[in-house]
């Protein structure tokens, strides 16, 4: 189900779901493997998502849905798209397949530019259903779906559907605009694909930039060697105490017979890494195979 924040609805900002977003990224890597995630290196192109007033309503919707299916590497899934009055932007009926029925809010009959965004969320539900990947709570499962859509190449459309100005007030999906930007920036770092030129919404680009700044801070969290001096000083103090202090510290210490160890999340896949506290060393993540320069 695609959440629909329309005119008059408050739009949440910031990073309130960051813990669940990071857990979602880890779940994707564990379920698909690093090579499986990297197989989604090419994002759905703007031309494939375009749906104009000149397109036949149902044929055009089917064409866009098929493009999203291909982008998510679901070649044997067929989406049947229909329109009706509803509160949500869209919903999907999850079944055994190969046909899946997506119902879309009637407003997309006229306001067509964001149809692909609504379909991106629903087709990602189908992908996760087929992968048997879900979280127990419905709210967290929707965050998983948005995160997967963004990380696998179709969720940039959901961020581009965000518009907040004097004339327009809209957001699709369950992540905040900044959280969408955060996931897209992490994807860009993995794939080398820069989507910044694809955004048609100025507000979407600004949210992407804020999310990218947060993603860059992940690369400067101790014990990564790129951590800044203030963070390093706090890490050194915590290391002497053998325990992390304060909220927000991603690392944890434990004392074993052979000495102190520190665990911390990989900034690429969120797999928790556990290494001895022995100064400067290079750590290879066993899940995504990223080599990290650390100063433990």
Secondary structure elements and their pairing?
Blueprint: E1 4-5, H1 18-38, H2 46-49, H3 57-71, E2 78-84, E3 90-93, E4 99-105, H4 115-131, H5 138-151, H6 156-160, E5 163-164, E6 169-172, H7 177-191, H8 202-218, H9 229-241, E7 252-256, E8 259-265, E9 272-276, E10 280-284, E11 291-295
Parallel strand pairs: 2-4
Antiparallel strand pairs: 1-6, 3-4, 5-6, 7-8, 8-9, 10-11
Helix pairs in contact: 1-5, 3-4, 4-5, 5-7, 7-8
**Beta-strand percentage?**
15-25%
What is the rounded distance between the termini? 43 Å
Mean pLDDT: 91
Shape assignment: elongated
Question: What is the helix/strand order?
Answer: EHHHEEEHHHEEHHHEEEEE
**What is the quaternary state of this protein?**
single chain
Q: How many β-strand stretches?
A: 11
Largest sheet: 3 strands, antiparallel
- Percent range for helical residues? 40-55%
Helix run count: 9
> Largest sheet, order of strands side by side?
1-6-5
- Radius of gyration (Å): 21 Å
Computed structural class: alpha+beta
Low-confidence stretches: none
Quick take:
The chain has 296 residues and is α+β, with helices and mostly antiparallel strands. The protein contains nine helices and eleven strands.
Keywords:
296 residues; 11 strands; 9 helices; single chain; 41% helix; alpha+beta; three-stranded antiparallel sheet; three-stranded mixed sheet
């Amino acid at each position: 189900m695609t959440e629909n924040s329309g005119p008059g609805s408050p739009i949440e900002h910031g990073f309130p779901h960051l813990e669940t977003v990071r857990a979602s990224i880890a779940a994707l890597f564990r379920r698909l493997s690093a090579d499986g995630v990297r197989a989604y290196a090419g994002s759905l192109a703007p031309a494939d998502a375009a749906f104009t007033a000149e397109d036949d309503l149902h044929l055009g919707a089917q064409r866009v849905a098929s493009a999203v299916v291909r982008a998510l590497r679901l070649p044997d899934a067929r989406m049947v798209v229909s329109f009706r009055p509803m509160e949500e932007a869209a919903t999907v009926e999850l079944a055994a397949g190969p046909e899946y029925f997506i119902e879309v809010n009637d407003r997309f009959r006229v306001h067509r530019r964001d149809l692909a965004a609504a379909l991106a969320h629903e087709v990602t539900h189908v992908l996760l259903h087929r992968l048997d990947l879900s979280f127990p709570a419905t709210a967290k499962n929707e965050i998983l779906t948005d995160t997967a859509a963004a990380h696998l190449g179709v969720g940039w459309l959901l961020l581009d559907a965000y518009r907040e100005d004097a004339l327009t007030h809209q957001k699709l999906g369950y992540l905040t605009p900044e959280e969408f930007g955060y996931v897209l920036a992490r994807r860009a770092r993995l794939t080398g694909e820069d989507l910044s030129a694809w955004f048609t919404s100025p507000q979407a680009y600004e949210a992407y930039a804020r999310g990218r700044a947060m993603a860059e801070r992940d690369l400067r969290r101790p014990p990564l060697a790129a951590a800044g001096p203030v963070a390093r000083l706090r890490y050194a103090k915590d290391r002497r105490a053998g325990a992390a202090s304060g909220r927000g510290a991603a690392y944890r210490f434990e004392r074993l017979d052979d000495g102190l160890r520190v665990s911390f999340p990989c900034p690429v896949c969120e797999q928790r890494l556990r290494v001895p506290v022995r100064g400067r060393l290079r750590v290879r993540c066993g899940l995504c195979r990223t080599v990290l320069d650390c100063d433990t």
